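Q: What residues go here?
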């Protein structure tokens, strides 16, 4: 089926998820929406996130997507079930894939989760983890400054390391062996977070596992694109596109040439 996959995030962070999808599904057309006018989602209410999410989903559905990927952890935490109820296409979030990969990894049933305030306060990760294994011990911590640090390009700086030390101090005392990066931006801080947590802690991000889930849903529903033509990637944002283009290489590993601004309001 040649219709595109739709992906959305609060901004460009979801491009880390798109990158993994492109790797294992190189023939698929993709429409990506970055809700830059409402970024950050991490500090907003459930009601606002649900409203932004359904507006974007409706726009993407109008553009004939065959499957929707909610690449944002905060939107996955607050709006996934809501979107599934409202839409007639498969909807995939990033929480369950991350949780599956953490459960596969942990040897001592002690898992840490970090994310935005919204994601952590929603308890979405905790609930999803305990649904798989009730014996798990889950320790969560919001790291609100990580997103602006990544957006300022401070992925390797001393200030980021100091803030990581501060945020992760309590998690370090919990003797976890697995840490879920529950935010689109955190894979860019994987090195620093890994260093702070120490070698014994495996740092898991959901992008790869999400891409695998997309693959298997396309196969199960028999909607994978079987043509060999070059795929088309379309990018839309709700605010100034220039900043979005700048981040293409860092998050997606490719230049983003064409980004259209669109007002869904
Ligand atoms: N995309 C968001 C997430 O994964 C991080 C950025 C934001 O707060 O909007 O939770």
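A:
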């Amino acid at each position: 089926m040649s219709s595109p996959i739709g992906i959305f995030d609060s901004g460009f962070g979801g491009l880390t998820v798109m990158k993994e999808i492109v790797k294992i599904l190189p023939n698929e057309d993709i429409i990506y929406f970055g809700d830059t006018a409402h970024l950050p989602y991490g500090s907003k209410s459930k009601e606002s996130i649900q409203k932004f999410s359904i507006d974007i989903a409706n726009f993407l559905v109008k553009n004939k997507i065959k499957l929707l990927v909610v690449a944002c952890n905060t939107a996955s935490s607050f709006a996934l079930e809501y979107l599934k109820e409202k839409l007639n296409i498969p909807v995939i979030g990033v929480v369950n894939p991350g949780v599956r990969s953490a459960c596969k990894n942990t040897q001592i049933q002690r898992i840490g989760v970090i994310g935005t305030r919204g994601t952590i306060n929603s308890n979405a990760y905790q609930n999803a983890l305990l649904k798989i294994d009730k014996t798990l011990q889950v320790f969560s911590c919001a790291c609100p400054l990580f997103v602006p640090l990544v957006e300022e390009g401070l992925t390797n700086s001393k200030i980021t390391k100091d803030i990581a030390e501060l945020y992760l101090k309590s998690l370090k005392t919990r003797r976890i062996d697995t840490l879920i990066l529950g935010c689109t931006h955190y894979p860019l801080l994987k090195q620093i977070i890994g260093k702070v947590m120490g070698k014994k802690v495996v740092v898991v991000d959901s992008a790869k596992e999400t891409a695998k889930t997309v693959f298997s849903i396309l196969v199960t529903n028999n909607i994978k694109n079987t043509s060999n033509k070059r795929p088309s990637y379309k990018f839309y944002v709700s605010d100034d596109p220039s900043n979005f283009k700048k981040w293409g290489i860092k998050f997606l590993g490719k230049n983003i040439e064409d980004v259209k601004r669109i007002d869904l309001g």
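A: Context that may help when evaluating the design: Residues 9-11, 13, 39-42, 72-74, 116, 119, 147, 183-185 surround D-glutamic acid (CB under 6 Å). The CA atoms of residues 67 and 88 lie 9 Å apart.
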